[in-house]
Structure formats: C-alpha cells, structure tokens
Write a structure and sequence with these properties.
Helix 1 packs antiparallel against helix 2. The N and C termini lie far apart (88 Å). This protein has one domain: LemA-like domain (de novo design (two linked rop proteins), Up-down Bundle). 82% of the residues lie in helices and 0% in strands. The protein is mainly α.
Length: 190
C-alpha cells in the first residue's frame, strides 16, 4: 500500500470516528431527555400518592364540597393517563387542570378553619406544594434536554446521522397561556 492508500485509510478512520462521535452525542442527548421525563414521572407518582390523602382529610371537614374534591381526583387521573401515554401535550393540559382544581380546593379550604388547623392537611398541603415546585424545575430541565436534542437533530451533519440511525426527536412540554397566568384569587373566593 502506497502513501495515497495510507491517506485514504486515515481519512476513512477519521470520518468513521467523527460519525461515531456524532452518534454518541445524539444518543446521550436522547437519553438525557428520557431521564428528564422519568424524573417528572417520579415526582408525579409521589404527588399522585399524596392527593388521595389530601382529599380524604378534606372530606372530614368539607361535607358540602364534594364536586371540588371529585374534580381534584378526576384531574389526578388525567395526569396519570397522560404520563402513561408519554404525551407531553396531554400532560401539560392535565397538569394545568389539576393545578386549577387544587387552587380551587385550597381556596375553598379557607372557609373551614378546622380543616386549615388540621395538622395532616397542613402537612399534605406543604408536601404537595413542595412537589409542585420540584415538578416546575423538572419540567424546565426536561424542556432544556428536549431542546438540546432537537437542535442537534436539525443541525448538519448531525441530521444525517440522526436520520441514518433513526434517532427520534422529542416533544416539548407546553402549557397554554391560561395555565401559566396568575390565578385570580378574588374570583376563587366569590
């Protein structure tokens, strides 16, 4: 093999190494997005377990607020279904509804001083609020991970490698403007 042969082999090895590096980078980004989704799932499951306890605690005091409690449980179920389907859009919609229903539940709880004084209610309300904060952080991390993956999938030459190896993109977790605007507390107490 002559000098030209060695140069061609070196170029082929360098090109192969470059493709492998691109592929490995895309795989890492894909797995980061999947891990971020799993982190959301863990927190949703924790909150999912706490909500029935909160509703049961409220039932002891809120005898005439059954529709509010039923809406919270229905919204909880919708979140669980959307997460199981792996559908970020449906999850965003279900999460928004659950947040609105929980806000309504907390507002109605203001009318029940005994409930507000209940240690179990205060603990669960604090626990759920803490989980909500953690979920907000995880949603942000998920969207950052998805964005990094999708940008790399669209850039040249990564798009060629992604297409060749069928590395899929991911969907951002969106919330409607209604779900992200401030809650009208006056309307809740009317």
């Amino acid at each position: 093999m002559g000098f030209k042969g060695y140069v061609l082999v070196a170029l082929a090895v360098a090109a192969g190494a470059y493709v492998v590096a691109l592929y490995n980078g895309l795989v890492q980004l894909k797995n980061n997005a999947a891990k971020a989704w799993s982190n959301i799932d863990v927190l949703l499951k924790q909150r999912h377990d706490e909500l029935p306890k909160l509703v049961e605690t409220c039932k002891r005091y809120m005898q005439y607020e059954q529709p509010t409690l039923e809406r919270v449980i229905a919204a909880r179920s919708n979140v669980s279904t959307a997460m199981a389907r792996g559908n970020p859009q449906a999850l965003g919609d279900a999460e928004g509804q659950l947040r609105r229903d929980l806000t309504q539940l907390y507002a109605v709880a203001e009318n029940y001083p005994e409930l507000k004084a209940d240690e179990s209610f205060r603990f669960l309300q604090g626990r759920i609020s803490g989980l909500e904060s953690s979920l907000a952080d995880r949603r942000e991390f998920y969207n950052e991970s998805v964005n990094a993956l999708n940008v790399r999938r669209e850039q040249f030459p990564d798009n060629l490698v992604a297409g060749l190896f069928h590395i899929p993109g991911a969907e951002l977790l969106h919330f409607t403007s209604e779900e992200t605007r401030d809650v009208d507390m006056q309307a809740l107490f009317s």
